[in-house]
Write the structure tokens for this entry.
Amino acid sequence: MKVLCSSEESLYRPEAVRWRNRMGLLKPMGEAVVILPCSMRKPYSNSKSHQIFMRVSKRIQEVILTSPFGICPREMEKTFPIQSYDVSTTGDWSHEEIKVVGEVLRDYVGDKEVLAHVAGGYRQVCEEYLEDCIFTCEDGRPISHESMQNLKDHIKKYRKIPAREKLLNGLRSLAIYQFGPGGEALIPDDCHVKGRYHKRIFYNNQQLAALLMDNGVYSLSLEGGRILSEVGTKWVNIEFDLKTNTLFAPGVLDADPSIVPKDEVIILNKGNVVGVGKAILNGEEMVKATNGVAVRVRHRVK
């Protein structure tokens, strides 16, 4: 599903605001951050420009500047809605766009060293909101041979992020984005990851979750639900035996108010995980509604 972002008002679409808020939970890895411009094609890595960037920049933390969503760390680029929004990329940014994007970028970068491989409005964001960064695009053309060589020369100064470290950080970032603070518990240090496209996460020979790359979110197993139940997120409380794959709203005793429709949720009965599934209603509606489906249950204890 395309998310159309054709005007400055798109900065305050619920999807964009929620994305920027969740980016505030993430931290960059490694010694430095390279800032890149967005592209028309999504995910960004499918574009010709980003394929050129990634030959050089994939060894350190990459973050893409974009309006109206603010920033997109490379590991997040296949997650809805950032993988399917539609916006003009003229490079000309309004004052409000610069302000909103700049604040998110500044908070994300923190005290990391920054290589800003950007021009136009993207560069203006960096100039106004970052105290100190190195601009590697000298001629206004990020993919020119001269600019790319300049970026390559600067990146060589930093330690390359090991592949395993980068993989785990990416998986944890997705879990934090989806489940909030503490969501990284879903990805233990010694977990095993299987699959070339969709990823399955295993720990102690049990599958915790499947990462569905069509929308970049996790589908939980019961064991993954047990891990996240200890974090205290996306929970739905009931007081009866769950015997079907449909949980109706009248059966919900209480629910995490942060739940929104399509969230992965954990169903609890007296503190024990009895099911996992996808929310149909938000947390408040689940508690108040007197009819209708609250959760489509994927797995349940039998």
In short: The first helix runs from residue 14 to 23. The chain has a mean pLDDT of 94. The chain has eight helices and 17 strands. The radius of gyration is 21 Å.
